Amino acid sequence: LKTSGHTAMEKRPSTSRRKGKLKRFLLRYFPPGIILEYEFKGHRRTKPIDLLDLNEHTDVEVLINIIIRQEPLISEKRRPILRQLIAKLSSKLESKATGNYKLDKLLQAHILPLTNCAFNKSGDRFITGSYDRTCKVWDTHSGKEILKLPGHKNVVYAIAFNNPFGDRIATGSFDKLCKIWDSNDGKLIHTLQGHQKEIVCVGFDPQGAILATGSTDCTAILWDVENGKALFTLESHEAEIVSLHFNTEGNLLVTGSFDNTAVIWDVSTGQSLHVLDGHNGEISSTQFNFAGDLVVSGSIDSTVKIWDVESGKCLNTLEGHEDEILDVCFNATGSLIASASADGSCRIYSTHTGQQKYCLQGHDGEISKVSFNPQGTLLISASSDKTVRVWEVETGKCLNVLKGHTDEIFSCAFNYDGSIIITGSKDNTCRIWKRDDEAKS
After folding, report:
1. Other C-beta atoms within 10 Å of 45: how many?
2. CA distance 181 to 128
3. 72-97 pLDDT per residue, tens
4. Comparing C-alpha atoms, which of 252, 251, 257, 267 is closest to residue 236?
5. Has this prediction a pTM greater than 0.85?
6. Tens digits of per-residue pLDDT, 43-69?
7. CB neighbours (10 Å) of residue 368?
8. Residue 136's beta-bridge partner residues?
9. Integer Rg of the chain from CA
10. Which helix (H) or strand (E) holds 146?
């Protein structure tokens, strides 16, 4: 039965038949899901129903039957509201893929080159880091600088919001320090001291309680966001850590290193669970899929590998690139993987089969970043050829080339609903591109 949702639900059965009291339904559009907010023994709790396979061919009534049968919190009388919620989720997924993005704002962002840029969850703000030793917070719609976060003594290389909350920002610097800031008023909350060398990657767990920092000192450190204390130092790698990513639940972290391995860590104990050993070159990028049962890694050995989280075994090696892999990512549901390479091409693979679906060619230089839109209908790629390309995932066609930067582009990102793209370049500028909705009709 190829019905959306039932496989995900079987993975997350109800903890028991003890029923709490259902309070309300919340929608999660990307990836599609319904969050149940309920009361149990006087406490408010939430529980997700993941509908990762939802599409226009889904038999909605069959899906509702499965949900009602498997979820004790939902009774038959909720069928009409479930039908409405699933219709809402479906309508978001159906938004047509248009590559018509036009330049909306050009920001003379920093006096020295940018290192990174990132959106908050809603996409109304984004942050930029720079060689000028600062991080800046910007209003997406006006293009105005809201806050400047000074204080680092060297390059601000890694930056992150504590999404989905967006009230904290972490900045990691070549000065060996990480700082946590209040994103509303720019106040410095904590300076985290513990690394012996440059910090090159940072990330919050999905609950916003723990921050991970990765360094060229071969370690990662887990920090308590509330009190700024180090919880665990993760020691296993023999070369610099260049990538880290929490799973959706926040109980696991994956780190990728120049020692050719990735490691999966237990966040609650700081212990290494698996060393993902199989690449013949430095690892550049790692990521969990949404379900948290797979990790993807990209390496300078020109291959992408898919790993089973439970066993630590390599499930598939994705080949085809002729030069270093510089970035890899899953789409929101985890069904596809995109890779970016120094060979000037991107590739899209099926996660399930490992088969290459498309080789996306057109850039005149190495591609350092790829990102799917939330709907999974578009892919963007940032290149040293000073352009970003917008690709249609279903056909592999290039729909648009975003031109205007005068130097290498190394950062590109979609906002939450995919209507805005930000790009960061070595030309010291950041550009905001908005979807031309006239072109959609």
Report:
1. 13
2. 14
3. 999 999 999 999 999 999 888 776 66
4. 257
5. yes
6. 888 899 999 999 888 999 999 999 999
7. 21
8. 128, 148
9. 21
10. strand 145-149
